[in-house]
Specification:
Elements lengths: L1 H31 L4 H8 L3 H7 L3 H21 L8 H16 L3 H10 L2 H7 L1 H16 L9 H20 L5 H17 L13 H4 L9 H6 L6 H6 L17 E5 L2 E11 L2 E8 L10 E3 L6 E3 L2 E7 L2 H5 L3 E7 L4 H5 L8 E2 L7 H20 L1
Antiparallel strand pairs: 1-2, 2-3, 3-6, 4-5, 5-8, 6-7
Bound molecules: zinc ion.
Zinc ion binds next to strand 7 and helix 15.
């Protein structure tokens, strides 16, 4: 009994000593930019022998101090709830919180860069690896983050970018006021590829909007996605029978005319991480009408091939008769015109200094802005 109590007393003293030693090392690095075992012992109020009993070398002491610092930063990150909400936003929150806490560890980061081996740096950053890896996995599962690069590489690259940004601030290459923006943009683009940028005039990112190309929609999913007609109408309307053979890889959205009701058209896109389908009213294609009009989604001009499509607003606003209209390619094949996979005698596209990817992003933004007006 006595021996047990005394063992636990020793353990308590010992762990208090370890904390005091690590505090002292952290404080000396912050104030002086360097430290020795003797200085740490003096600052912590323990003997050098005690320090050596816990940490045989300065490197071992520094490694333990770094590991504790990383764990503290990670504890702060948990408060940003990386497990909640859209992964891109969670990533932005986590980086903002992490950056705020990293500021206190500049001197330690410098000592780490000089003294610790790459293996020790990896070892001490295990907690950071786990947090970033699980956020990455969550975003990969819901299509927000890229899957074309190894996850391990993305996690290591993130930690390296954080350190590089920290180094840049310390060396005066990066304005401290701009550092978080630079870091967040770099890591978000690294995780999302081209898909995650916020699009102007549209509440979603392009990854929220683009149809999941590897994951074509089923009839059932499409019917469940209608936001501006009744459930009964959504159940009865004509959904294409050839969904399986649609060129999903080339579609920014799926759009079709109702073969039995020429004044009806429909479109479905992915918005806010889920499919959103919209019922449209449009005049039947008129053979007499040859005026050139530009599609406001894909910017293709057609002589007679663009229709004013009108969507009832969703919810009670729509039931009261409110609607919103926009000019769209009458065949709703905007995605194919954009990619040059469909050309008609009357369709023309202005040469523009934009990459295909930028044009696709613009389609997605234009459509997203329209969907946002419908859904309010
Ligand atoms: Zn179009």
């Amino acid at each position: 009994m006595t021996r047990q109590r005394s063992t636990s007393y020793h353990r308590e003293v010992s762990s208090r000593n370890v904390e005091a030693i690590l505090d002292a090392a952290e404080e000396l690095l912050r104030q002086e930019g360097h430290a020795t075992i003797s200085a740490v012992a003096a600052e912590a109020g323990v003997s050098r022998v005690t320090v050596y009993a816990h940490f045989p070398t300065w490197e071992a002491l520094l490694e333990a101090a770094v590991e504790r610092a990383v764990q503290r930063v990670m504890a702060a990150l948990e408060e940003a709830h990386p497990e909640d909400g859209p992964p891109v936003e969670a990533l932005e929150r986590v980086l903002a919180r992490g950056w705020q806490h990293l500021a206190g560890y500049q001197a330690m980061a410098e000592a780490v860069a000089e003294l610790l081996t790459p293996e020790a740096v990896t070892r001490t950053h295990q907690a950071a690896h786990r947090t970033i890896a699980s956020l990455l996995a969550r975003g990969q599962a819901d299509g927000s983050f890229r899957t074309d690069l190894p996850a391990d590489w993305l996690v290591h690259a993130t930690i390296a970018l954080i350190h590089t940004c920290n180094d840049g601030v310390r060396a005066g290459r990066i304005d401290p006021g701009d550092a978080l923006r630079i870091l967040t943009t770099s890591i978000r683009d690294l995780f999302t590829g081209a898909r995650g940028r916020r699009l102007s005039g549209c509440p979603w990112t392009s990854s929220d909007l683009a149809l999941p190309t590897v994951q074509p929609l089923t009839e059932q999913e499409i019917r469940a996605a209608f936001v501006n007609c009744s459930k009964g109408e959504a159940k009865r309307l004509n959904v294409p029978h050839d969904l399986a053979s649609r060129p999903w890889d080339d579609l920014d959205f799926l759009g079709w005319r109702d073969p039995q009701a020429p004044e009806r058209a429909y479109l479905v896109a992915r918005a806010g991480g889920r499919p959103v389908a919209i019922r449209l009213r449009c005049p039947a294609p008129s053979h007499g009408q040859r005026r050139s009009t530009m599609c406001s989604i894909c910017m293709t001009t057609h002589a007679g091939g663009v229709s004013l499509m009108v969507a009832a607003l969703s919810g009670s606003a729509g039931q009261q008769g409110n609607s919103v209209g926009t000019y769209i390619c009458s065949d709703l094949d905007c995605s194919l015109y954009t990619r040059g996979k469909k050309v008609t005698a009357s369709s023309t596209r202005l040469p523009e200094p934009l990459s295909l990817e930028e044009k696709i992003e613009r389609n997605v933004a234009n459509l997203g802005a329209f969907i946002a007006k419908v859904t309010g």
